[in-house]
Amino acid sequence: MRNRFASLGMMLVAVFVATNFAVAEEKPIKPEKVDLGRPVSFEKDVFPILDANCIACHNVAKKEGSLVLENVEDLIKGGDSGASVTPGKPDDSYLYQVASRTEESFMPPLPNKVGAKALTPKEVWILRQWILEGAKSSGKSADAGVAWQSLPPGLNSIYSTALSPWARYAAVGRANRIAIYDLAAGSEVAVLNDPALLKLQKDGKPFYPQGAAHRDFVHSLAFNNDGSLLASGGYRVVKLWKKSLGNVVKKIELPAAVTGLTLNADRSVLAVATADNSVSLWKLPEGKKLVDLKGHTGAVTGLSFTPDRSKVVTSSADQSLRVWNAADGKQISTMKTPAVINALTVSKDGSQVIAGGANNSIYVWPMTIPAPKEGEKAPETPAPLFELKGHAKPVSTVKLVLPAGTQLVSGSEDGTVRIWDLNGKKQIRSINHGAPVTDVDVSPDAKNIVSVSVNGTGKIWQLSDGKMLKEFRGDLSKERQLVLATETQTVTKQKVALADAAVKAADKNVKDREGELKKRNEELAAAKKALPEAKKKADEAAKKLKAAQDELAKLVADHKKKGEDAVKAAAAQKAAADKAVADAEVKLKAANEQNQKAIAAVQKEVDEAKKALDAANATKPAKDDKEGEQKKKEAVAKAQATFDAAQKKLTAAQQKKANDEKQLTQAIQTAKAGIKKADAAVAAAKKQAESKPDTKAADKKVADAEAASKKEADAVTAAEKKITSAERSVKVAESTLTKIKGQLADRTKEKAELDETAKKVDAALAEAKKQAAVLTPIKSVAFSEDGKQVVTGDDSQKVRLWEVASGKELDTLSGHTGAVSAVTYTSKSTVASGSADKSVLIQSVQPVWSLIAQLGVDPKDPSKVGGSPISNRALCLDFSPDGKLLAVGGGDPSRSGEVILFDVASGKVVKKLGDAHSDTVLGIRFSPTGKQLLTGAADKFVKIFDVATGKFVKSFEGHTHHVLDVAWKADESTIVSAGADNVIKVWNIETGEQKRTISGYSKQVTSIAFLGLGDNIISGGGDKTVRMHTSSNGKNYRNLSGSTDYVYSVAASRDEAIAIAGGEDGVLRVWDAKTGKLLFSFNPPPVPQEQQASAGK
After folding, report:
1. Do the beta carbons of residue 838 and residue 847 sit within 8 Å?
2. How far apart are alpha carbons 950 and 77 in whole angstroms?
3. Pick from 389, 429, 398, 391: which is nearest to 413 by CA?
4. What CATH number is given for 258-370+378-389 in this structure?
5. Nearest 5°: CA angle at 170, between 223 and 942?
6. Do domains 151-245+847-859 and 258-370+378-389 have the same CATH topology?
7. Entry pTM
8. CATH topology of domain 151-245+847-859
């Protein structure tokens, strides 16, 4: 039994590793009765126990060993090792045995890395009692049944990742937490927490001490089209997190346009120069005004704090340089300058003012002008300590190279940046920017210089040798529009090529079908031409057959007539004989009747005579009456004579009767003999009539004629069938040709439309290039504290952040309504910008992520999910290309696979496809045009649905296990699917056929995505690998190494430069996808010591 359930024991908890905690000897846990006052509820009582110790690895998304412990049905069904619970029999239930520690392997094992604890005696009793009561589910909603538990500390499996559209940010879901990483900075910039969850407490302690984005695992993540929204999927809810960039920390309203900004040494005070010839000082971060510096009669052109923060030095178009007390705003000193000073700075020790003049020179004056000797008048324009010459046009900017402070960097309208040795009072090097320089800055480590120009370019130079490291230019928005336009052109060209191929194929098909129709018509004509000759031969053969048949019929008819005549004659003879017998019998009967009558009459006479005789004899005369005696004698004699005569007459009549009978009987016998003879004649005639004539020759003649006729008739039938078949073939060919011509017309129309689209796309690209080529003059620049970024302000009213290493624009901060004249970092995370709109904005340069909506739940009480249209976990998400719709995939395992479309703006359900699949939907993607939706599910199917109608369009069948993810190629000609059957399948969208199967994984392929616009794909799998293939040929051209455990999720940038992956080890890895080089490994947060200690108890 132990061996049978060994794998189940491993499944019951997350993957555990040994730690240094000491563990007491394991002992069975004796149940301790709990007085619930009601039957044990799975949802209320048992589920929380399993959720805290088992469900981390046995949920619908992970499903280790095919075991799910989230609901009763799946729990009883068990996994690969069989049922884990036997209702009514806790002692026979392996789950109870290992949980109560009465049967090894004990679960959860102690110690472990996720903080799972051994069940308490009361928890063991609850589990036992529930099984005793039949292991039933109450069937109540999640709200009524689930007693939420915080996830064990140390649980950091990454089930979901997402890459922002421009690959700046990576989002990762670890357990129920979400972290955001800035891939430009290589650091974590945000951890997303639901404020409502942070407030929850249990036993006076935070319910989620590490914070939480969801109460359940974060199963899915997706950025919208512009990266401003992140959607995260949990249990029956999807949360929307909005990224805000450039949040205004403070806005300072001013009386005139801002012309300059500078900070004091500790960045606690901001000096702002405005077009009304004044300077104001503001306390940071409060933004409280401290003092105004007024006195200049012309625009303030330069300003700088002294290193000790006590003074402010300003220059002006009024050709004066003034020193002010920063505390009270009082002017300390003033001097006239030989020319308008465009920019200034203060030496490291605060003893000198370094100023760049409109007369092309750089002047170095002492901070304190020496008093004139007694009797001497102070000069109107004091002589500088020294002057640096070299620029050919006005100096526009000067910056001190710190921390040494011995070098100076200047920029000029002559297009050069120059580096000066202040101690040696000489130029070290001149660097050609190529256009009038408006501002420069030096990196905090003094290694790099940045210069910006009126031509809209910025350049990073190496201070040590003047080598240009990077050039930056342009507008991020315009650049991205250019990228989008370029991508659109590339995809359009692909589609045009596909359409062109389709037109050519359809045209060839039409020609082939026309040839086929011609061939069929020729076959029909030939068949019709052959039919008359076949009919003629058939008619001749039919005539010959008829003649032979007539001849045979005559032979048979003649023979029959002869027999019939003989039968007729014999019948006549028989009839005559029959008549003779009948006549004789009639005569005999008549004679008998007549003779009988005569005999009867004579018999009567005899009887009467006898009676008279008897009467005479009976007369008794008297004894002596002789007369009487005589009379008696005479009477007797007379009576006797009469009697005798009558008797004789009777005898004669009887004799006559006998004679007549004899004579007539003889006649009958004679007639009957005639009948017998006639019968023999009839029989002979019938035999003759029934006999068959000798038709052998005639039969052969007929048979030969029939065979010939059939042959010719068959030839006619064949010819007719050939015509019918040919006619059918012609109709099919005509129908097919009509259809193909229609397809050709459709393809031609599509091609023409695409050609027109291509023209518009080309025009849009040309316009995008034109717009991108228009560079806005950059007025100001400053390095960040770490020197990795610079901030610029320009005439487009934007503040831009640039990455020094790559020269790429990272972010654009909006907010101003006028040209931005000055920028500076006020802290690591904020910048100040001054504008012609008469304001200074202090804005955050770090994105802020805020929870703005929860889809599927009541906004009045988001904690309750019972009424959510999302029936279970939101396992996959995708935004439509325009960001207006959010597709959510999920469903109940083994019951349904649902797809829900939400309107992002309102949070309302637009469409719900509850029966999209027969099992949970695990992968979902909008098509690049947003018109169709691609899904993959546990039912092994890949399907496409129409977004507008929700109707099913097409399915793709071929996987032998769950489909875990899906992806579209940019031109929508191909899709790919990742399966739990350890393969990737590549499909032709139009035909629905498999193009190929890509194998090589030893475990499930969990995640897949197309790289850029071509055929390359990236995928991750349970065998710890991240692989890159070419879908068109299946070649595995690169693997990204480093993963140490099961990989659940991968993503890649649109330019194929960045790839990310996360999995069971909790590490988010970031690679250069083009080289395979690992760029970053972002480890999961460590478990706090107090939680580690708690987990080990």
Report:
1. no
2. 34
3. 391
4. 2.130.10.10
5. 50
6. yes
7. 0.73
8. Methylamine Dehydrogenase; Chain H (2.130.10)
> How many Å apart are CA 116 and CA 153, to the nearest integer?
8
Measured between alpha carbons, how far is 798 from 165 in angstroms, rounded to an integer? Answer: 22
Closest among 691, 698, 693 to 551, alpha carbons compared: 698
Identity of the amino acid at 869: P
- Model pLDDT for residues 295-323, shown as the tens digit of each residue: 999 999 999 999 999 999 999 999 999 99
Q: Which stretches of 804-938 are assigned E, i.e. beta strand?
A: 809-813, 820-825, 830-835, 839-844, 848-855, 876-879, 885-890, 897-903, 909-917, 921-926, 932-937
Q: b or e along 578-595 (b: 16 or more beta carbons within 10 Å of the residue's beta carbon)?
A: bebbeebbeebeebeeeb
The b-or-e profile of 831-858 (16+ CB within 10 A means b, else e) is bbbbbbbbbbbbbbbbbebebebbbbbe
Give the C-alpha distances (Å, rounded to integers) separating 233 from 221, 449, 753, 867: 6, 46, 39, 16
pLDDT band at 470 (very low <50, low <70, confident <90, very high): very high
Q: Could you tell me which residues are beta bridge partners of residue 799?
A: 793, 813
How far is residue 979's CA from residue 1022's CA, in Å, rounded to a whole number? 11
Highest mean pLDDT pick, 547-551, 726-730, 1090-1094: 726-730
Distance of CA 207 to the CA centre of its chain: 36
Number of Cα atoms under 13 Å in the Cβ half of residue 774: 9
> Domains of the chain: which residue ranges?
6-145, 151-245+847-859, 258-370+378-389, 478-619+627-696
- Backbone dihedral angles phi then psi of residue 360, each to the nearest 5 degrees: 80, 0
Distance CA 926, CA 500 (A): 25
Phi, psi angles (nearest 5°) of residue 675: -65, -45
Residue 639 has pLDDT above 90, yes or no: no
Residue 193 CA to residue 355 CA, distance in Å, equals 51
Instruction: With CA atoms as reference, report the closest residue to 287 among 848, 839, 845, 846.
Output: 839
Give the span between the Cα atoms of 811 and 791, in whole angstroms: 10
